[in-house]
Amino acid sequence: MKSFIGKRAIASGVSLVVLIVIVFFLSRLTGDPTDLYLPIDATTEMRQQFREMNGFNDPLIMQFGRYVSDLAQGNFGQSLRQARPAMDVVLEAFVWTFWLAVITMVLVTIAAIVIGSLAAFRVGGVFDRLATFFSLIGAAAPDFWLAIVAIVIFAVKLHALPTSGTGTFWHWILPVSVLFIRPFGLILQVVRGSMISVLSSAYVKTARAKGVRSNSIIFIHGLRNAMLPVITVIGDQAAAILNGAVVVETVFGFPGIGKLMIDSILLRDFAVVLAVIMVSALAIFIMNLLIDIAYALLDPRIRY
């Protein structure tokens, strides 16, 4: 198992290094941020001083070398917009996205596994048809449309929920609900399909013939063997949210890492952009590593 985890960690580390190099040079192609941070009537001397102070006058390769040197010392640079360490800014935003992802994915996983398993137990029944119908709609519905419709109905028309912020429990309902719908539809379909295949196998038919209870057949005998493809989809969806639910966070004014990324790109806050990419990439790599470990635990053949 240690060798298995080590190989995955090395591959993730190499990918992270390549990603940092690409993002560093691409971000510089967006232009000089001087005009965004100085007043219109700033003199040429003021502009030159700003560029010198932030190292924008140096060749790109020199800027990259300095960034790598600082990175090796644990220095991720300063935010131009907030004038404080970029990593502090990113971690503050990441905490909000992390809890948004955790709450959403816990609810999604429980609901999708239970409903998808029950739907697969009686294929073609009323419950199966309703579950399939609504899950397909949910999987196809775009987040931005759902977010706008939710605001119009629950905030504007009914005045029941706030449109933005994180101050109370009620502020979380709309973002979590909108983020819930798409992964719920996708995961439910995978659970249903996988469970249908497992429940038609010989050992399940034998268990039924012996009079084993339906709940035991579904959630003990069937679910473990049906979880391999489900884990992949759960991991992908969780990584997508951890990477920044950009649309949902922007529409609801949620102070997460997705909204921070958009704001930083627009304001050319390079240090924050790179810190966001690094934190997001690490979160995705850790999620993929956990998926690999879960695979290996469920199916020992994968380790070898």
Q: In angstroms, what separates the terminal alpha carbons?
A: 9 Å
CATH class of the largest domain: Mainly Alpha
Domains (count): 2
Overall pLDDT confidence = 84
The CATH H-level superfamily of the largest domain is: MetI-like
CATH architecture of the largest domain: Orthogonal Bundle
Helix fraction? over 70%
Q: Major sheet: size, sense and barrel closure?
A: none
Gross geometry: flat
What's the order of the H and E elements? HHHHHHHHHHHHH
The portion of residues forming beta strands comes to under 5%
Q: Mind telling me the C-alpha Rg? A: 24 Å
**Derived structural class:** mainly alpha
Count of helix runs: 13
Low-confidence regions = none
Number of strands: 0
CATH topology heading of the largest domain: MetI-like fold
